[in-house]
Amino acid sequence: MKLRIMEGHVEKILKRATESKIEICGFLLGVFEGDTAVVKKVVFMKNRLNSPVAFEMEPEEMVKVLEWADENGLDVVGIFHSHLCEPLPSQKDFKGMRNWPVAWFIVDNKGNYGAFMLDENEEIEEVELILV
């Protein structure tokens, strides 16, 4: 699996993460082209936990975004969020990856980032990033 994302999208996510005191979160919407998830739109979501160490999206807001994506021919190709420590999946992320089997794009507040997902053995694997 590969994740193709525009540098401008990455910069927008990193900017928000460095300015925030809580974890930021949202959806990466786009299309699948073979084994590559192509990001077309970044949608920031409210972290209803208002926490620096965890995130949870507002369910009503999620429904609206998912309906909009469907109406516009887009899929959820990734979930993004921030960590105040290094951008590696946490135990909570691991559980979330089971529910959302897409790329998880994780950033920190120092400009570092990576993408991950579960493989068929439920092992976390790094997703190749293609910046365009």
TrEMBL record:
Residue ranges occupied by any JAB1/MPN/MOV34 metalloenzyme domain in the UniProt entry: 2-126
A Pfam family of this chain: Prok-JAB
Keywords: Hydrolase, Metal-binding, Metalloprotease, Protease, Zinc
SUPFAM superfamilies: JAB1/MPN domain
InterPro entries reported in the protein's UniProt record: JAB_dom_prok (IPR028090), JAMM/MPN+_dom (IPR000555), VirAsm_ModProt (IPR051929)
Keyword Zinc assigned: yes
Gene Ontology MF terms in the entry: metalloexopeptidase activity; zinc ion binding
Highest taxon of the lineage: Archaea
Family matches, as CDD domains: MPN_like
Lineage of producing organism: Archaea, Methanobacteriati, Methanobacteriota, Thermococci, Thermococcales
Biological process annotations from GO: proteolysis
Name by which UniProt lists this protein: JAB1/MPN/MOV34 metalloenzyme domain-containing protein
